Amino acid sequence: MTGNKSCLTEFQKCKGPKVTFGGNDKEGQTKGRGKLIKNQIVIDDVSYVKGLKFNLLSASQFCDKGYTVEFTKDLCYVKHETTKEVVLTASRKKNIYVVDWNTAKDGVCLIAKGDSKLSWDWHKKLSHLNFKTINKHAKEHIVEGLPDIVCKKETLCSACHKGKQQKNSFKPIAGDLSTSPLNLIHVDLFGPVETPNVGGKKYTLVMVDDYSRYTWTIFLSKKNETLQKLPSLLKQLQTEKNLKVKTIKCDRGTEFVNQVIKDFCDQNGTFHQLSAARIPQQNGIAERRNRTLKEAARTMIAESGLPMRYWAEEINTACYTQNRSMINKNHQKTPYELWKGRKPNISYFHVFGCKWYILNNGKEHLKVFQEKSDEGIFIGYSNTSKAYRVLNRRTLHVEESIHVKFDDSTSVKEVTETLKEVNIEDRTPEPSEEVADNPAFPTPAPNPLLLNEDEDSEDEEPERPTQQLTEPDLTWLRDHPPNQVIGHIRSGVQTRSASTRREAMLPCYISQMEPMTVEEALADPD
């Protein structure tokens, strides 16, 4: 109790008992209660007694609130009952003990320490409310009926873990894990995309260098194409930088965990690091780059109005521009500068989907007064030469040319509106430096059937496309129960043609005559 009202915080007026003090039977009335804060020491439930000249601490109340009070000849110690930690010390002066606030432990709140059973009982009564909120209620008296306790979580609550457990957070790693290019390569695959691109591709293989954050994208028709494309690109990068790939980091998809990738890693001394199952955060660099590329492509589709089948061109353009514009936080440089060793020049960048005029640079025989240029739509940058990729609106072919002029006066959607219902012929992609598999197709020869009718082309026979042999597509089959196999498991697959041949042989074993007696049947050689 205290007679100084100004030293109390959160004071609440209330009428309490009278306190007698002094030799003349003087009495003081209790006017209220509050908190006493001194040198970061907090004492709750301190009574304000008007007329009291000294501050008094009750040893019995300390004991009631879960503390042990020990007296010696010269000192008094207030200790925590469980931990035996000294929280307050008082020195003896004549016949009284005076608290030395300077020796008290910082941050001590001298309120009741509830026992373990009481804490867990209230935890369950409050529908497994966390102990931090329970302590806040007890300390600030937000509710009535809750005892002044401090709950401490000394053991785990199994019911809380079964009902509330969440995934662990993945904090970013400070600093740079790689010291040079190709130290660590992050690889991931996204797809299938619902709408195949104009080349029939549905998947995108994304590869990121950990040191520079330089990114490569490869477009695939099937997942199993990764077995050929990924080792091929890694070999190209090793030749370009004259360095070995030390570590490849990817998930546990079958396109990455197979004998082909294992043989490549064994031959090159590369460590194949896999993320844990169903934890994509462990391959977060590649996963985050997937999201960045898809968001950029989605934005360009919305802005340009191009049909959805051009998504690979947008991914290709996004990868090209981000390599030259994004900033690596660890080095404050672009991925292009960290990989190539020089600053990128982006003065030639233009808006995706804008209108262009392409010069007919000798690819067609023009008459004297025939137009020299065609209108086109800008769809990206070439990865094999210094050129722009432009969709020719007349021939409906993608061309790569440097002889182009752009027109910013026409809106992007107005230019691309006429292409939404046009089917474009597929062309064979070519490998490139930055995007190993070009997302659409290279510059093809113009189709004579699409030329103007007034051209003198009746003497020229249209060139017939050559038919090339292609390797059969691989099909991955696994985990088929043996009991569902009809026939011997090592026998070949029975086809309809094999059954037809067997039926044709059946008449050879059938008699050509119908015997009337047993003797005739035995005499028949068939």
Provide the fold topology.
Blueprint: E1 8-13, E2 18-21, E3 26-38, E4 41-49, H1 59-64, E5 67-71, E6 75-80, E7 86-93, E8 96-99, E9 109-110, H2 116-125, H3 131-140, H4 158-164, E10 184-190, E11 203-209, E12 215-220, H5 226-241, E13 247-250, H6 259-268, E14 271-274, H7 284-304, H8 311-323, H9 335-340, E15 355-359, E16 373-381, E17 388-392, E18 398-401, E19 404-407, H10 412-416, H11 496-505, H12 518-523
Parallel strand pairs: 4-9, 10-13, 13-14
Antiparallel strand pairs: 1-3, 2-3, 3-4, 5-6, 6-7, 7-8, 10-11, 11-12, 15-16, 15-19, 16-17, 17-18
Helix pairs in contact: 7-8
Give a short overview.
It is built from twelve helices and 19 strands.
Q: What is the third-level CATH name, the topology of the domain at 184-340?
A: Nucleotidyltransferase, domain 5
Tally of individual helices = 12
Low-pLDDT segments, ≥5 res = 421-434, 436-467
**Structural classification:** alpha+beta
Major beta-sheet overview: 5 strands, mixed
**The CATH homology group name of the domain at 184-340:** Ribonuclease H-like superfamily/Ribonuclease H
Taking all Cα atoms into account, the compactness measure Rg is 42 Å
GO biological process, one term: proteolysis
Organism: Cuscuta europaea (European dodder)
Region (Disordered): 420-500
GO molecular function: nucleic acid binding; peptidase activity
Account of the 3D structure:
This protein is an alpha+beta fold and 526 residues long. Among the domains are: 116-156, no CATH class; 184-340, Ribonuclease H-like superfamily/Ribonuclease H (Nucleotidyltransferase, domain 5, 2-Layer Sandwich), CATH 3.30.420; 355-450, no CATH class. 23% of the residues lie in helices and 21% in strands. It has helices at residues 59-64, 116-125, 131-140, 158-164, 226-241, 259-268, 284-304, 311-323, 335-340, 412-416, 496-505, 518-523; strands spanning 8-13, 18-21, 26-38, 41-49, 67-71, 75-80, 86-93, 96-99, 109-110, 184-190, 203-209, 215-220, 247-250, 271-274, 355-359, 373-381, 388-392, 398-401, 404-407. Strands 1, 2, 3, 4 and 9 form a five-stranded mixed beta sheet that branches. The chain has a five-stranded mixed beta sheet with strand order 12-11-10-13-14, sandwiched between helices. Helix 7 (284-304) crosses helix 8. The model is unreliable at 421-434 and 436-467 (pLDDT under 50). This is Integrase catalytic domain-containing protein. InterPro entries: GAG-pre-integrase_dom, Integrase_cat-core, PolX-like_BBD, Retrotran_Ty1/copia-like, RNaseH-like_sf, RNaseH_sf, SH3_retrovirus. Residues 452-462 have a biased composition (Acidic residues).
